[in-house]
Amino acid sequence: MINVVLVHPEIPPNTGNIGRLCCAVGARLHLIRPLGFRMDDKALKRAGLDYWKDVDLVVWNDLDEYLKSTDPERLVLTSSKRGELYCAVRYTPEDHILFGPETAGLPSNLFDRFSDRIARIPVNTAAVRSLNLSTAAGIIVYEALRQTGTLPG
Length: 153
Fold this sequence. Notes:
By secondary structure, the chain is of the alpha/beta class. The chain has one domain (3-148): 3-Layer(aba) Sandwich (Alpha/beta knot). The protein is 32% helix and 19% strand. The protein contains five helices and seven strands, in the order βαβαβαβββαβα. It has helices at residues 12-25, 42-48, 63-68, 108-113, 133-148, and strands at 3-7, 28-32, 56-60, 75-79, 84-85, 96-99, 118-120. Helix 1 (12-25) links the parallel strand 1 and strand 2.
């Protein structure tokens, strides 16, 4: 099962949309505190629609707790500025794909610590800084599913 990991997500509709994505493809969603919203936030549930109750969800107290429980070989970091093109990264069905908070991205010390697998989605940085978090998650998750032969339906 692919694991989608949101490190300190800030915007409830993005998390709700990603939860719906995870439900649609059979992925597990990991949320790492602190969160920029409460879990009973109306915008979170509105974006996830009535699927939110079916999301395979794990909430972690902090990043260290999550990292201690996860095989570092299964981590795929995401960035809009560094790493291999997202479709050049080789995914496995057990991967954990990490996405950073909307305003800052993943902490730079993570890139130093886990530099082997970083997926980058190319964007025209003269026009925008990055893609919306839920859009980026959809692109990378579907590529991982395609590569691993686990696309739904």
